[in-house]
Amino acid sequence: MAYRVPATLELSAEERAELESWARRRKTAQGLALRDRIVLLAADGLSNTAVSAELATGKHTVGKWRKRFARQRAVGLLDEPRSGAPRRIGDEQVAELIDRTLSERPQGASHWSQRSMAKASGVWGTTVGRVWRAFGLQPHRSETFKLSTDPLFAEKVRDIVGL
What we know:
Blueprint (H helix, E strand, L loop, with lengths): L12 H12 L5 H14 L4 H8 L3 H14 L18 H13 L10 H8 L3 H11 L17 H9 L2
Helix pairs in contact: 1-2, 2-3, 2-4, 3-4, 5-8, 6-7
């Protein structure tokens, strides 16, 4: 009967210090802290079974993070982007929405609201709010909000923010 031998982990002093600090920090996500503890115990020579018993987690979980750390080091312990629904609004629509927010005023009003912009643009109000938050736009704050006269402003903002 062939047994799978877990990857042996050798940590440099810098890696150990980084993992220990991540595991101790109060602001670290608990999932990342658990992964750090798994790797630290595995590097101390404990088996997957012993690590899983020590941390009250599954053996498969321990094996997964041990292998990923062996392949990718500390970067492999970080959360990967999660899948989700594809975007329903394209870059062109975002640029159009930003441009309209910054260059126009609604008829009969002093500034855009999420509802009025959504109605004028043909998108949901939550989408308008999300775009405005991403780009730091607050047209309802009249003392701080200024309309830009730069015709390429939307492209510049998109390059800087990266949406």
